Amino acid sequence: MQNDDFLTATSMALRTILHLPDPRLRRQAAPVTEVTPAIRQLIADMAATMYAAPGVGLAAIQVDEPVRVVVIDVSEERNALLVLINPEIIATDGEQTLEEGCLSVPGIYEPVTRAAHVKIRARDRDGAPFELAADGLLATCIQHEIDHLDGRLFVDRLSRLKQGRIRKKLEKQSRLAM
Ligand code: NI
């Protein structure tokens, strides 16, 4: 992270979101050892970037910061920001299939099967540990974002055939964008 000495969490900047197939999305994100002003700034910027996109979740690695920080808001009102630092899944149960998209894979939406219930352990934006039980969209979103921290994208969970189609579609989109 750069410029953290003079940034404060009261100012928020939109960060650029990396898109597939950028290899930076494939990195393993490092645990946060301390909630520094730079991490607070990153969280504020990630929240602003997620709300502006708009999206329901964003992992730090998607804005080129390979640390284990996630922001999520699955509420209708967009006023229930969940910050997860160093999240870990400690229990799962059941299965559900929901349609997923990703801010790093624009325009692609596909059904993905994941655990229906998850229990996680994480630290909040102040570094305090907590546990959370989630189901429904929140459970899927948490699993999707933790995948990002390990360099995985939801499309990796699709069939080879679908992955090939998506690759072609993204190549076409990037040609059109140039
Ligand atoms: Ni994503």
Provide the fold topology.
Blueprint: H1 37-52, E1 57-59, E2 69-72, E3 82-93, E4 96-100, E5 110-114, E6 117-123, E7 129-135, H2 136-149, H3 160-177
Antiparallel strand pairs: 1-2, 2-3, 3-6, 4-5, 6-7
Short description:
Helix content is 27%, strand content 24%. The protein is an alpha+beta fold and 178 residues long. Nickel (II) ion (NI) binds next to helix 2.
Mean pLDDT figure? 93
Low-confidence stretches: 1-9
Radius of gyration, taken over Cα atoms and rounded to an integer in Å: 16 Å
Strand order of the largest sheet: 1-2-3-6-7
- N-C termini distance: 29 Å
Instruction: Output the number of helix runs.
Output: 3
What's the main sheet like?
A: 5 strands, antiparallel
Structural class: alpha+beta
Number of strands: 7
Topology order in helix (H) and strand (E) letters: HEEEEEEEHH
**Global morphology:** globular
Helix content: 25-40%
General description of the model:
This protein has helices at 37-52, 136-149, 160-177; strands spanning 57-59, 69-72, 82-93, 96-100, 110-114, 117-123, 129-135. It is built from three helices and seven strands; from the N terminus they run αβββββββαα. The strands form two sheets. A five-stranded antiparallel beta sheet has the order 1-2-3-6-7. Residues 1-9 have low confidence and may be disordered. Helices cover 27% and strands 24% of the residues. With 178 residues, the chain is an alpha+beta fold.
Task: Summarize this structure as a short list of keywords or feature phrases.
178 residues, alpha+beta, five-stranded antiparallel sheet, two-stranded antiparallel ribbon, 3 helices, globular, disordered N terminus, binds nickel (II) ion
